[in-house]
Amino acid sequence: MARDERVTLLEVHQALPEEQFQSLKFLLEGQVPAGLLLPASRPELCRILLQRFPGNSLGVTARILRQLGRLDLIQHFQLPLEEQIPEETPWEPNGDIPKARGDPTSGCHPGGIPAPPVNPRRLTEKDLMQVAQRLGKEWQEVGILHLGLERSRLEQIQEENPGNPVLWNFEMLREWRRRERHKATVSQLRSCLEPARLDPGILDFLQSLQGD
């Protein structure tokens, strides 16, 4: 079965034109670190997906193909139907979740393990600004370790908004929301920030939004 999954996955990737293959990698950034994705060839990306989403690599790929409008490939390779694909937890670890590094699961990165959503409400810009006002000077640490953003992007945000730490925090959170798209919910952000060393008031604030 593992071999069938590997062969099918590679055939799906090889069926994509180069532009769509690069789009596939871009859309996977919320679940796999960009440092692994960007240089990956098609066989290397297959290995990454098989390792990180054991038993569900085809399901994860099918969800991205839907976003790319390639329903023809889903049908041709008989990939899992959407209702069979877990939405918030796209991979099923074999009983063991590494505690030290965390896992690059949906929306959360090393250090953050998402909990089942309590309230699927998406975050508004007002919500993000209120969180930004509570974040401290360790915003880059939060962005890299817990939101999975690239240091270069955070440095760019800092250059674009000189001397305004609240705007740095706000733009960082907007970048995370832009990347996560429909998964950028209150509960998702709270799950990502829970392991971080933050003012407890941030989690309390997000908890209050979940109860709205």
UniProtKB/TrEMBL annotation:
CDD domains: Death. Signal peptide: none annotated. Residues 147-194 form the Death domain. GO terms for biological process: regulation of apoptotic process; signal transduction. Residues 4-79 form the DED domain. This is CRADD protein. The lineage of its organism: Eukaryota, Metazoa, Chordata, Craniata, Vertebrata.
